[in-house]
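Slide 14.
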Amino acid sequence: MERFPDKIAVAVFAASSMPCVGKHMGIVRELMRERAPKGLLMDSKMIPMNNKRGPGTADLTLAKLLMTPGSQFQDDPMMKDDKLLTSANYGSVKRVCLIGMGDDIKELHRYLITLSPGTEVEEIAGADHNIMCSKPRELCDLLAKISSKYD
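Slide 15: predicted structure.
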């Protein structure tokens, strides 16, 4: 969006981190740590166990293989660059933020939206953080509505 703003009709953020002009990219992660409800963020080494015996050896091995580092780019200098996103380019692209009303961090999304004036907000009732899985039909209808509006 920073490089080719004239080729983008509208940017849609569906329950995702929306970067802000004049703020570094890592601010979303920092705000998440500060503002997320306690207990929401799991430690990267913690694997939930729902049964008394714990997972079987094969399940535990598979889970460890599938784990990825959660902060791959945290120390990247670009993540701390306040001038990376400019008002003239990134800031000129129209943005729509979709919020699932059942999302545990919807207040964080709303705060990030206040940092990006002019962002349109659409709410999806009954959707959680993963809107695509919880309300796929409503998401599809809303994306069609947005695309026709900004066509």
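Speaker note: Residues 78 and 84 are 7 Å apart (CA to CA).
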